[in-house]
Amino acid sequence: MFKFLLKKSLNSFLVLLGVVTLVFFLFFVLLPADPARLTMGQRSDAKTIENVRKELYLDKPLPTQFGLYINDLSPIGIHNKTDQEKYEYAPLLSVSSEKTIAVKKPYLRRSYQSKIKVWDLLMDAFPGTLILAFLSIIIATVVGIFLGIVAAVKHNTWLDTTAIFTSVLGISAPSFFSGILIAYVFGFVLSDYTGLGIVSPLWDYDPILGKQLRLKSLILPVITLSIRPMAIITQITRTAMLDVLNQDYIRTAYAKGLRKKAVIWKHALRNALNPVVTSVSGWFAELLAGSFFIEYIFGWKGIGKVTVDALNKFDFPVVMGSVIFTATFFIVINILVDFLYAIIDPRIKNY
Q: pTM (2 decimals)?
């Protein structure tokens, strides 16, 4: 098991390094705009621009810039005394009077617009995205697996046809279209009956009671986000269950006199879970990365909305940080899924 996870972690590290390299060259090499002028504005004097370029390491050769960028992102890196205000750190080994190898938070630079650390901006927005993603994937998984099992067990009946039609409809509807339609119908046209609005912040700020949680604000965004993953999970569960239900050991289980419920839930479902786990993990990673359109449509404060706002303002450090943050989540979740695979099916550890 250890060798299996070590191999997966090494592969994931190489993927993340590739993402960081691509992001760096896209924004620091191919981007025509000058980051120093984006930071200070077009009317800043030459001396100020020069100081900012020095602060952002833009006065150094490109390989040096890349090395410093990697050092900023790494949780273990070389800390200079001149970087005292960048991040909190815990020293490990002193290299010289000026440099120390330290454990630190990844430093994603600062926002051009607000001058706030990108890490702090993302961490402030992350809980909103996490709540949406977690609730959406739970609903999509529970409903999708149930519908998939029903469709497989009731194969070639009206229940199977209805499940297939509903899932195809859900897959075919883009999230931004579903979001706009649901927001307009339930948050505007029928708002007097539903009590819901298009813009749905999670927290209300009352001058007397203070910060108040608005759970009903979750209804429309969560339903919108869960539609597509639920449709795909339904299809995958149905296909996997149909394949498993035709296996010899299932017929043997029936021949031994086992009840139908026991055969389906205990024997068939477990062996059909691998492709379902793949789908669930992939969608959860995507939702965690930030559902850009949904968060923007519903005015939801999450990573997706922060990234879209940063793009509109050419605030590239925030965009870069969001991309790297997203890629890291995909990689971490994929490692956890591989670990779960190895538990469900021990044969996978041999590959």
A: 0.76
